[in-house]
Amino acid sequence: MSEAIYVMWLRQLKRYWRSKPRLIGSLAQPILFLIAFGFGFGPTFQKAGGGDYIQFLAPGIIAMTTLFTAMFSGIEVIWDRKFGFLKETLVAPVPRIYIMLGKTIGGATVAVIQGIVVLMLTLIVGFRPNVTLLPLAFLFLALIALFFTSFGIAIASKIEDMQAFPLIMNFIIMPLFFLSGALFPINGLPKPIEIIVRINPLHYGVEGLRNSLMGITGSYITVNILILLVLTAIMNIIGSLLFSKVEL
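^ that's the sequence the OP posted. Answer follows.
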């Protein structure tokens, strides 16, 4: 059974590596956000007493890249269904949950790689992470990737129209991103908005990633990890149930 998971994981990585335009094109948005927001709002952020905005923004952009890559990995389920590969996979004598886990881990691995690439790019614009807690930062990247990859696959399992999937993903992703605290501090927000941010799963990933990269420790780091672990486990269960009911 572990071999089935490995094969699906390896397939995801090979498809990613062979698609050079996808690899390069996926970096355009985070670079644009870093330059436009980082240098555009940086002086205002500093005057307001928030310090160096690049230091605050960079972890949010890294999380954004991981989020987008993870969620959109679900489109491969629709693509495989359309061209018959999914049918050949699902008729194999392997439980569907293993196929789903292989796809989830593969998509999450690609998302983490994208996040690490953007992390290296942020160094060029002046971001200076604390290397001591880098392993912890990678853990948060992995949890973000696993949660949202399984989320994307769960949604893709119920959608057959390839053109509808990106529209639905953008409808979900943009509020998740903008209401996660990735671009601005949540302190001082109107109470309804702050509540929405607090129930946003991405917020705990962004907060944990930012604190890890900036070398800030505390009990809330453990709380963030536990919340993400529980949510990831729940989402993988939901994703597995929905994927097991995929109709060919």
